[in-house]
Design brief:
The chain is mainly alpha-helical. The chain has helices at 3-48, 51-66, 69-79, 89-115, 118-126, 131-161, 173-184, 187-223.
């Protein structure tokens, strides 16, 4: 590695890391929070088997899963202004990432809800709980424990996917790498550096996921 490239990488690292912490991580957190809300709502509608609403949810999942994320970003950010709907790039990214991942997570949550024994519902009714109370205090906690590994994987996948926000001008970590590269023309070094930062963050999240799984397994064992 020549001295010029080394100097560029040393100088760019704190800038890339800063954008990763200030933009990429919050973007991921907000998008994941939205995806979680959407997925639980969609999964509950399907679980309750309300015919019309269930069909609407299946249509939403079909559309989202059948179209590329990049196309969805372009439709929302570049397409909607033509019908009078203008969104800031960051807001558009959060909405698209949230509703996109929400469709996939909804299927995870639906499977987790269906894995809870029907007897749990019957037991809840026997002790005088309402449907909503049973869902909130009995079914959903068990479903979340089952779905935790898959939801954690969705979070990690979303973190990496936020790099696509660069295509709609969101100044996140990858976009900052592109800007720096536009000045110094060291594509291999800079993109390798940003890849390593993504790898480090994902490795940390994977470690936290394993800790969470162990704790939840302990709760499950205690419940048994």
């Amino acid at each position: 590695m020549n001295e010029r490239l080394l100097g560029i990488l040393v100088d760019s690292f704190p800038k890339l890391l800063s954008y990763g912490i200030r933009v990429t991580l919050p973007l991921t957190a907000l998008s994941f929070a939205l995806a979680l809300v959407v997925s639980v709502a969609v999964a509950l509608v399907q679980y309750a088997n309300v015919r019309v609403l269930r069909q609407i949810c299946r249509f939403y999942i079909w559309i989202i899963r059948g179209t590329p994320l990049l196309v969805q970003l372009y439709l929302v950010f570049y397409g909607l202004p033509s019908v009078g709907i203008k969104l800031e790039a960051y807001t558009a990214a959060v909405l698209v990432f949230g509703f996109n991942e929400g469709a996939y997570m909804a299927e995870t949550m639906r499977g987790a809800l269906e894995s809870v024994s029907v007897g749990q519902m019957e037991a809840g009714y026997c002790v005088g709980l309402s449907y909503l109370q049973i869902m909130a205090h009995v079914v959903l906690p068990q479903a979340f424990r089952t779905a935790f590994p898959a939801l954690s994987n969705s979070l990690i996948s979303m973190l990496k996917g936020t790099s696509l926000a660069a295509t709609i001008t969101v100044m996140e970590m990858f976009r900052q790498a592109q800007v720096i590269n536009g000045r110094v023309y060291e594509s291999l070094g800079l993109y390798s550096e940003v890849a390593l930062i993504y790898l480090a963050i994902c490795t940390l999240l994977t470690h936290l996921q394993r800790i969470g799984e162990k704790k939840l397994a302990g709760y499950g064992g205690a419940a048994k």
